[in-house]
Design a protein that fits this description.
Number of helices: 15
Order of helices and strands: EEHHHHHHHHHHHHEHHEEH
Radius of gyration: 22 Å
Helix content: 55-70%
Largest sheet: 3 strands, antiparallel
Number of domains: 2
Strand content: 5-15%
Strand order of the largest sheet: 3-5-4
Number of strands: 5
Structural class: mainly alpha
Shape: globular
CATH architecture of the largest domain: Orthogonal Bundle
CATH class of the largest domain: Mainly Alpha
Amino acid sequence: MSGVEVAIEWNGRPARAWLPDPIASRSLDLPVEIARATERAAAAATRVGDRLPSGWEPLARLLLRAEGIASSNIEGLRATAAQVAVAELDGAAAPHDAALVADNLAVVTEALNHARGNERITVDDLHGWHARLMRSSELAPHLIAAFRNTQGWIGGRGPRDAAYVPPPAPNVPALIDDLIAFTNADDVDVITQAAVAHAQFETIHPYGDGNGRIGRLLVLWTLARRLDVSVPPPTSVLIARDAGGYLSGLYWFRTGELARWVKWFAAVVQASSAAALDWAGEVDTVMHAWRTRLSDLRTDAAARSILEILPAHPVITTDTAAEFVNVSGTAARAALAILHERGIIEPYEVAGSPRGRPRSWWLARELADLVRL
């Protein structure tokens, strides 16, 4: 076992909660076959960064959007890639779930920028990411950027019939301090470190909401920092495809079957790395076809410049296009008309657009459709 059950009281009646063992000083000896699996997974994740084409930033945004949508989908938040792209530009113009997913994507971006600076993670970092994640949520203000101060549970109506009961609130700060010490270490195999850090965070369940998304964020942060990759593979996409395996894996971790959990996690990292490269190939195919359609235009034409940012912004407006490529509104409008005529973008109806002068939205559907779970 990797913890113990402790007695708690809930509404005047006895119940039980799980108190995990600390992990910072825990021995993580794994069988040779598991160690080899983690090595293969780390190599696959590194290849994603090595094989991205020049000017990879727009493609990276597409991959991260897939990660954000999948991580939110696991928590029951449903939004299309187009809706999320709208929310990134104007949260008021998108469905509420899309705004929540856009907040998740913003936090992913913040965390990866943090990891690229090779900084150590702190409690303040976790709280800052939680505050950004919960910006559009209905979580009580006193629970945002703060650990829970009451007993939590997962499933059921309370701790007595829950599927899982995390540790009592007074134990959370010390457990998180231990988790942070483990996550900042450099002497642990990176895949095992990401797997254990994530599972321990989910076991502690320190926040009133958003634990799954912050916990999966730790995976990206660890991979980016330790492997020095600009774009970690979108692991949440593969997790979303095997939600049963994911929940079983967290159970294995809690019950001491560490090797079994790490093996499953390493397979997810390896598969998501392959998926990222497949996506890159599909995007390259689409972009090559579109560039061919614009081959008669001057190399400095605004339509060509806007085309190159579509992987990052598959939904766009005249104003945002003008801003992104630094041209006038008139030039952007003319360029978007060309892209529409050439079958690259299409008009996109946004139900939440503010009243007043209509805001013209355009969708690069072929790119948006590539972000699939």
